[in-house]
Structure formats: C-alpha cells, structure tokens
Design a protein that fits this description.
With 141 residues, this protein is an alpha+beta fold. The chain has 2 helices and 8 strands; from the N terminus they run αβαβββββββ.
Length: 141
C-alpha cells in the first residue's frame, strides 16, 4: 500500500513539474520588409512568425511574465491592458485598448508551443500581435 501511495505521489509531482510555471506575454509589431535577423526576445518564435505571417519584420514592443495558474490581475503591456486567468489548460485571455475589449478568448497552452493572437492595427504602421507562451522553469522579462 505504501508503494502505491508513493508511486501516485511521484506521478503527481512529475505532472506538476511538467506543467508551465510561468506565462510570457510578448507584444510584437509586424511590418512589411526585410529584417536583419530576429528581434531580441523573438529568437525562439521568429521562424514560426516568418513562416506563417505575411510580414518580414517583427519587433518586441513590450513583454511581461505572469505566474501560472494566472491570477486574473491586470497587466499593462504596451498600450494594452491584458488579463489572464486560470491554468494553462483552460486559460482565459482578455486584451483591452482604451477600455474596449479587442481580444477575448479561452485557450489551451502547451509548454514551449507559442500562441500568436492579434492582427490589431497600429498607428505606427504594420500589425500588433501577442505571443503567449507557457514556460517551464525559466522566465523572460
């Protein structure tokens, strides 16, 4: 009986370790044209951005790191207010600009698999998007 209880506890601990410990949120501006390589802070997702979006230049405008599960507190990221709540397998995301909701969704995040949401217009040109990523054991500021 003790071996069974110990085995179950080890599985629970292993599952908890495998889940993301933090959520990185990066606000990215995408523009037409060539870049001289990935923007600092985008090295890990630049190939996916370039492969899937019709832009050639991506720059991080602002970023934040939140604990998981997300506690629903509001974070200012660039010109947007971002509220995330819940665990990574049922994460609610709401982004507002000037008090108006511009993104509202519920997602399942997988460790190391970034989620790109957006396509919002930008006064400076191009499009704004958010990159959400669950990260186990490291943080990005």
């Amino acid at each position: 009986m003790k071996k069974i209880v110990l085995s179950v506890l080890l599985l629970l601990v292993a599952g908890a370790v495998a889940a993301g410990e933090s959520l990185t949120v990066r606000l990215v501006r995408a523009r037409q044209g060539k870049s001289d390589g990935p923007s600092p802070g985008l090295e890990d997702v630049a190939p996916a951005l370039e492969r899937n979006l019709a832009y050639g230049n991506f720059r991080v405008v602002a970023s934040a790191t939140l604990p998981l599960p997300a506690d629903g507190s509001q974070r200012r990221i660039g010109a947007y207010d971002v509220v995330c709540s819940g665990p990574q397998d049922d994460l609610a995301i709401e982004v507002t600009a000037g008090g108006r909701p511009v993104i509202r969704t519920r997602v399942v995040l997988r460790d190391g698999k970034p989620l790109i949401v957006g396509g919002l217009g930008s006064a400076e040109g191009g499009r704004m998007m958010f990159v959400f990523e669950s990260v186990a054991g490291r943080s990005r500021r």
